[in-house]
Design goal:
There is one protein chain. Strand 8, helix 5 and strand 9 (225-228) form a beta-alpha-beta unit. A nine-stranded mixed beta sheet has the order 3-1-2-4-5-6-7-8-9. It is of the alpha/beta class and 242 residues long. 30% of the residues lie in helices and 21% in strands. Helix 1 packs across helix 2 (90-99). It has a single domain, classed as Aldolase class I (TIM Barrel, Alpha-Beta Barrel). It is globular, with a radius of gyration of 17 Å. The protein has helices at 59-70, 90-99, 138-149, 166-178, 198-217, 231-236; strands at 4-14, 24-30, 55-57, 76-80, 103-108, 122-125, 158-163, 184-188, 225-228. The structure holds S-adenosylmethionine, the ligand Nc1nc2[nH]cc(C(=O)O)c2c(=O)[nH]1, iron/sulfur cluster (SF4) and magnesium ion (MG).
Length: 242
């Protein structure tokens, strides 16, 4: 059985972002990313700083740890990273979770396709705006969206763009216009992913949330859009494992 590089397994907590915000869930965070976003809040997954903490686990070992930590207090698991879409073996984990009656969400940036995407219940694709200093390959993204849209399934993907500035907002509008039928979310960017001053961070994030709401409210191209903060950041700041 192929192994999966894992950095964190935690929960139950709530999904703090996007299409199933507020949903009680466990998290599995994989190691490794094909991007290096300037403002990544999980840079330890790819910058080498946590390389000694990476564990190569089988799907069964991950399931066993999920139940050890979460007991019977969960029926939903979110796989994030890093970019979990780099790892083919996650297909086995998705299958195992489903066999156990657990729903599965995925967080990925839309730079790589995996056949197991079609099995994901809540799939969030988060293409990266200019402030990240990453370049979106729209050929790849078009292909992913086409494949997911052509499936007559209950599962529908969503798009989530993090916005830090005017240029990012413009990028978000382009992405929404390109895929008008995909549920679209804009998310407040956290500019200070290292501070432990929760009070200061939370008031800044709430101010930025209001700014982002204002932008969306005033823009006729952004009518069918949801605006969200990272709920977990408002509750726990930059704390890891929540
Ligand atoms: C750490 S990423 C891991 C999954 C995948 N690599 C991706 O980027 O979609 C999880 C989510 O956090 C978002 N994110 C990362 N850093 C952020 C920050 N500083 N502020 C707001 N959202 C951030 C990403 O855009 C993504 O939607
Ligand atoms: N509570 C909580 N919600 C989240 N939504 C996306 C997360 C991520 O890091 O991918 C995340 C996370 O790390 N914690
Ligand atoms: S794609 Fe996701 S994990 Fe990778 S660097 Fe960007 S935000 Fe971080
Ligand atoms: Mg996070």
């Amino acid at each position: 059985m192929a192994n999966i590089p894992v950095l964190e397994i935690f929960g139950p907590t709530i999904q703090g972002e996007g299409m199933v915000v507020g949903r009680k869930t466990m998290f599995v965070r994989t190691a490794g990313c094909d991007y290096s976003c300037a403002w990544c809040d999980s840079a330890f997954t790819w910058d080498g700083s946590a390389k000694d903490d990476i564990r190569q686990l089988s799907a069964h070992e991950i399931w066993s740890e999920l139940t050890q930590i979460g007991g019977k207090k969960f029926d939903h698991v979110t796989i994030s990273g890093g970019n979990p879409a780099l790892i083919r073996a996650i297909g086995e984990l998705v299958e195992l979770l489903h066999e156990n009656g657990v729903k599965v969400a995925l967080e990925t940036q839309g730079s790589r396709w995996q056949d197991w995407f079609e099995q994901i219940d809540d799939l969030t694709i988060s293409p990266k705006p200019p402030s990240s200093r990453m370049e979106t390959n729209f050929d790849v993204l078009d292909d992913i969206i086409t494949r997911l849209s052509s499936k007559a399934r209950e599962m529908a993907p969503s798009l989530k763009v993090v916005v830090f500035n005017e240029e990012d907002f413009h990028y978000a509008k382009e992405v929404h216009a390109r895929y008008p039928d995909i549920p679209f979310f804009v998310q407040v960017g956290n500019e200070d992913v290292h501070t432990s001053d929760d009070g200061e961070l939370i008031s800044t994030l709430l101010r930025k949330y209001e700014d982002l709401i204002d932008r969306v409210v005033e823009d006729e191209m952004m009518n069918d859009v949801r605006v969200l903060p990272q709920l977990h950041a408002l509750v726990w700041g930059n704390k890891r494992g929540v």
